[in-house]
Design a protein that fits this description.
Order of helices and strands: EHEHEHEHEHHEHHHE
Strand content: 5-15%
Distance between the termini: 34 Å
Number of strands: 7
Radius of gyration: 17 Å
Shape: globular
Length: about 250
């Protein structure tokens, strides 16, 4: 078990990639705390995990990620309960595809508050404990659009470019303190969001992928588990693209 005796907080852990990552971390022996947008949503996901892993140490919290004091208070409760925070996975995020002409300041703020400010707040709160113990791992969910952008909904790729920038900057700043910082950039992944996309839209996308399939949440979770483990002890400041594409 690669994450035995580690305490991990996974934001946006109630579904999709976050839930798959929580499940993978439990399989690897970690104590897992997931965050969700509401207490009820967090509890539902926790109960679902406990049905499969009755002996697992897993719990849920619901801080407002765009509010630093809310996050700091919730993380303090985690540390008080489990002793510390060893791993943070910044996974919570929102995507959208509104054209520039229709974009509002409110929509821009919504994307940035969660995808950028939320990552900043959670990382700032978690490193408070990691710095004290001289070790820790910060991971964030980026996206393939941080490399290729997208034709509409500019704030989403802009937010993921920001995640990449924070990842590299924090890797340089926090490395001397024993904290590794990396990101995973998923490609098109078969989550609930993709299930609503018509097959005639998906098929051309799959044809462009050399591996011939969409990504699964478990593919991304496996990458997070590797980067969180001591097997990646000499890896920091990396944005790992897990998208099935071939590139130079």
């Amino acid at each position: 078990m690669r994450l035995q005796n580690k305490v991990a907080v996974i934001t946006g852990g109630s579904r999709g990639i976050g839930y798959a990552t929580a499940e993978k971390f439990l399989q690897e022996g970690a104590t897992v705390v997931i965050t969700a947008s509401s207490k009820a949503t967090a509890e539902k996901a926790v109960n679902k995990l406990l049905e499969r892993y009755p002996k697992a140490r897993v719990s849920g919290i619901s801080p407002v990620l765009s509010d630093y004091e809310s996050v700091r208070t919730a993380f303090r409760e985690v540390a008080d309960t489990f002793g510390t925070i060893d791993i943070l996975v910044n996974n919570a995020g929102v995507s959208e595809s509104t054209p520039l002409a229709d974009y509002t300041e409110e929509l821009f703020d919504k994307v940035m508050d969660l995808n950028v400010k939320g990552v900043f707040n959670a990382t700032r709160a978690a490193t408070e404990y990691m710095e004290k113990q001289g070790s820790g791992v910060i991971l964030s969910t980026s996206s393939m659009v941080s490399r290729y952008a997208q034709p509409s909904g500019f704030a989403y790729p802009a937010s993921k470019f920001a995640v990449n920038g924070m990842t590299l900057s924090w890797a340089r700043e926090l490395g001397p303190k024993g904290i590794r910082v990396n990101a995973v950039a998923p490609g098109i992944t078969e989550t609930d969001m993709m299930k609503a996309v018509p097959q005639e839209v998906i098929e051309p996308l799959v044809r462009q992928i050399p591996l011939g399939r969409l990504g699964q949440p478990g593919d991304i979770a496996n990458a997070f588990a590797f980067l969180a483990s001591d097997e990646a002890a000499y890896i920091t400041g990396v944005v790992l693209h897990v998208d099935g594409l071939a590139r130079s």
